[in-house]
Amino acid sequence: EDDQTPAFSPDGRSLVYTSEFEAPGSPMLYRRRLRRLEPATGEAVDLPTPPGLAHDPVYSPDGAKVLYSLEGGGFHDVYELDLASGRSVRLTRSIGAAYNPVYAPDGEIAFAALRRGSVHIYKAPRSRFGADAPPGPPAGPPVAPAAAAARTAPAPARSPFSTDLFLPAF
User: Fold this and answer.
1) How crowded is the C-beta side of 54, counted as CA atoms within 13 Å?
2) What CA–CA distance (Å, rounded) separates 5 from 108?
3) In sequence order, what E strands does 11-166 have?
4) What angle do CA 62, 107, 89 make, to 5 degrees?
5) Which of 48, 117, 125, 147 measures 20 to 30 Å from 40, CA to CA?
6) Could you give the residue ranges of the DSSP H alpha helices within 15-64?
7) Distance (Å) of CA 126 to CA 17, 43, 137, 150
8) Is 147 helix (H, G, I), strand (E, B) or coil?
9) pTM above 0.85, yes or no
């Protein structure tokens, strides 16, 4: 049971982080949830988090939302938690992984995503993400223009591990 990835709110009065906890009876024995800590009082509270392993939380520039990644069902996706309502919205639907989300200074969202056996950075306006994000490529092109020109439709993600690692064991 450990705590990780703290991120301060824009006003510096609180921080959000992930905390591991035991979940008996769950398909995953250990899960990770979001927590918020008020350093002035030492009070820590659990934030509503869907089942899975939450990682990499960051506050929105106005402090009203938290962007984070969640591993659930074998996939990593980017979620956004509205602190007022307690509602989390899945912003991506990955065939592989989307993680390390951040709010960009221009209001867009950037994150890393596994595509075609490599990890690339993607960035797009928040309006292009939503609860009904279609499966497939991330909502925006990779940040590097040359990579964007070379890639039109990402193939399903492949594992970076080869069978060479496993066959000698059999």
Assistant:
1) 31
2) 21
3) 15-22, 30-38, 43-46, 53-59, 65-72, 75-82, 87-90, 97-103, 108-115, 118-125
4) 75
5) 48
6) none
7) 22, 31, 15, 24
8) helix
9) no
Amino acid in the structure at residue 124? A
User: In this structure, what token pair is assigned to residue 161?
Assistant: 């591990």
Query: Both tokens of residue 96?
Result: 């592989």
User: Quick check: 162 and 124 in contact, CB under 8 A?
Assistant: no
Burial call 82-110: b when 16+ CB within 10 Å, e when fewer: ebeeeebebbbbbbbbbbbbbbeeeebbb
Contact 138, 122 (CB under 8 A): yes
CA distances from 77 to 10, 116, 132, 135, 146 (A): 24, 17, 13, 11, 25
* CB distance 166 to 159 below 8 Å: no
Per-residue pLDDT of the chain (170 residues; tens, 9 = 90+): 789 999 999 999 999 999 988 877 766 667 889 999 999 999 999 999 888 889 999 999 999 999 999 988 778 899 999 999 999 999 998 777 898 999 999 989 999 998 878 899 999 998 888 754 444 444 444 444 333 333 333 333 444 444 443 334 43
Cα Rg for the chain, rounded, in angstroms?
Answer: 17
